[in-house]
Amino acid sequence: MNPDERHTKHAAPVMDRRRLLLTLGVGALTTSKRANAQSWLHHLSQSLKGNTVNAYATELFKWDLTFCSYGLDIDPKGQGSVKTLWNDNWFKDTDSNIVANFYTGFGAAWGAGSAGMGGTNPRGSRLPKTFRLTYYDYLEDRFYQVEGELPMRRMYELFKPRTIDKDVEYGRVIPCFNDLRIGVAPLGNVMIWAAGNDQVELQTYHGQVVMQGVTRKRYNDSLPGGTFTLMEDRDTVLLGGRMKPETLERIKAGWVPDPTWYMRTIRVKYPWRHKLTGNVTRMTELESYQGNAEAQTIGAWEMGLYEATTAMRGVPDTAKFWFHDRSGVRHHLWISFSLRERAVSESDLSEVWAAFEKMFPGRSMDDNAYAPSDEDMATVEVNISDDFKTFTASLVKGTTRLPLPVGRTQHFALEPYTHWPGQKTDDIKPEVKRRFLLGPDA
């Protein structure tokens, strides 16, 4: 057995079991473990209540804001343009104090995140209770305002746990979530995610059209000097997003993307988990990115719980696997389940959705809250050839096996304990090795 496998069967630390269950959104375990999990979650709930009165409202966290918007399915290389108004965008805490101001465009693709101007106090801020977002959508030629409340207790439970960073701060204990991500969909629809190492939907909102009849020029003229204005030539802005001239003509004739794609269609969940087969002895770590823009990271210390946990998930988009082969060598595999883009940086997962719909016919968002049993669960199996040159994927449930597409892949053999090509085992400190095996409490 490779030395970095020896301790992966240890029980997950309490905070990390809590993180995994909260990220899944359900406490649905295998039948033999469900009763214990429910008892454990009840104990955790009582413990949280007793720790600090309204800690979710008063504790400081280091968090920031990122932004994204919808794509154009009729023009996969084109993009619209959405921009906040200059002075009417904020998040407030339970005492109605502003904890974040922001001004931004929404340049990132749906579910991804780009930074804006403003933000939170870098030394830490309370979690917000309310927000206001006021923006102009060039494609629709409309001003919108969205106001709403945020699920503070849910945010607190997500922002509190810690994990281990595999990237910029390699080996350090970091928050699982440190970002509120705002996504603007067509016709005033807005999604907010908790984002960071993982990504989870928090809530959806629907804005109101405001400032009807106000032109961009009239809005600009109403602003004091030295402030951010809107570009007045709408055609120039839209064509600047690499939009085809014929797409612009359809937009000017009244075409608008369908918001139900983002607000309902891609958010339908199914009961499944990942599994590796072929030249594999065990999957040790996982990063799973889903078509509903949620993401889940599983450390070595959490893998046993992941494999024993039932949950509803969006269909698979991409995944990163760390695993050991039959010879005990450690590997990394990145795999995409799409063959093309639907819109800019949005995967076309039509073949994947077709397979899931065939396996689970008639599913809708109304089924997302369902807690599946062991018998309900399917697996997305990725088979790895003996020579690590061929990778295939299937959706499997019982005796039914449906092929899934495999797009781009990237594979590397690794040194023990490492995560990326070029890393050396000897360069990783013993305490970092322990963290990646046993979790942030190690």
Through-space gap between termini:
22 Å
Structural class by SSE content: alpha+beta
Count of all domains: 2
Please summarize the sheet with the most strands.
7 strands, antiparallel
Total helices: the number is 11
Estimated radius of gyration = 23 Å
Oligomer: single chain
Unreliable parts: 1-18
- Total count of strands: 28
Q: Give the overall shape, derived from the CA principal axes.
A: globular
State mean pLDDT (0 to 100 scale): 90
Strand content: 25-35%
Q: Brief overview, please?
A:
21% of the residues lie in helices and 33% in strands. With 442 residues, it is of the alpha+beta class. The strands form seven sheets. Strands 3, 4, 5, 7, 9, 10 and 16 form a seven-stranded antiparallel beta sheet that branches. Strands 6-2-13-14-15 form a five-stranded mixed beta sheet, with helices on one face. Strands 20-17-25-26-27 form a five-stranded mixed beta sheet, with helices on one face.
